[in-house]
Amino acid sequence: MSARVFRMGGGDSAGTGGVRFAVIAVVLLVVFLLTNPLKVIPAGHVGVKDFFGIVSKNVLPPGVHLVFPMTRVVRMSTQTQQVKEAAEVPSQEGLTMDLEASLLYRLDPDKAAEIYRTVGRDYEGTVVEPQIRSAIREITASYDAKALYSSEREKIAQEISDQ
């Protein structure tokens, strides 16, 4: 008489549970590394974390950071930027003059997440340039043409800067 033994259910034979765990761990590690969780923020920039449209209030300072996989980190420059503006501006007499101006500005690192959330990455074209254009036109319209080419020029520049 021969006896047959049938195994039913979850018996581990020859340590395959350990091998299965190792394979799963390696697969998870590879997936984790492929999603690039290490983000480098260069000097003069901050990083804004964006996880599927949810923008973090905290910014990442320059350096290497470990972030949650699938989180996009948007780099925003905190270095001094220059905007040059050439415009035809009105004077008090109604004359139109050609004027060139430049503005130096920089993004406040503490406000970077707010700017990204409300304005986007192109804050220069959306906010800075229109504001400088508006300020130049508004201030020059209250002066006569002669003032723009005299010693009052510094006063006009200061008014534009203050606005």
UniProtKB/TrEMBL annotation:
Keywords associated with the record: Membrane, Transmembrane, Transmembrane helix
Domain of life: Bacteria
InterPro entries with a match to the protein in the record: Band_7, Band_7/SPFH_dom_sf, Prohibitin
Keyword Membrane: yes
Membrane-traversing stretches: 17-35
Band domain span: 39-162
Gene Ontology CC terms, in alphabetical order: membrane
Coiled-coil ranges (or none): none
Signal peptide: none
A UniProt-annotated Pfam family: Band_7
Protein name in the entry: Prohibitin family protein
Source organism (scientific name): Eiseniibacteriota bacterium
